[in-house]
Model the fold of this input.
Amino acid sequence: MLNMAVLLSGSGRTLDNFHQRIGEGSLAADIKVVISNVGSALGLAKAERYGYPAFHCRDNRAINQTLASYDVDIVCLAGYLKLYVPPPALARAVINIHPALIPSFCGPGYYGHHVHEAVKKRGCTVSGCTVHFADGLYDNGPIILQQCVELGYDDDVDTIAAKVFAVECQAFPEAINRVDRLGIDYFWQRVGGER
Done:
């Protein structure tokens, strides 16, 4: 079981998903702390309601000072909308989810509805999500899991977003379970050619 910190910037829908799956025993993790860069984020209020320590930290330095007080194996970016730079001890232990199939529609400026708008504009018939380790660049680092969803020709941006979020709710917990099972190093070695 992995000890997890959750970083978020908004409503905490992914936190809801984690909390539910931990409760039903389908996510091999324990949430130790929830941190947001937005003081008014609904996700912080949810974290408090769930009984998790919850903090507003404006920048990487403040986040890392807070994390130093907790025993954390991984940091999950759950709708965290800033570039996070972890302390050296967690440099390879930050997991992000991106609402597209990397390497498509990713990088600076591609987040949230911006991604789905680009997918719609391009006329894609599939989209999905990518769970990956973060390496200091936007939407980069070893991929843990990708999940695909079929899009209809007439799907609007909100429909695309809803379809992708539905698969995110499956993919993110499954990716964490795979990291628990296989270990963090496995994924970094898998793409680096090290065995």
The chain has two domains: 1-91, 96-195. The chain has a mean pLDDT of 94. The helical segments are 13-24, 42-50, 60-67, 112-122, 157-182, 184-192. The chain is about 40% helix and 20% strand.
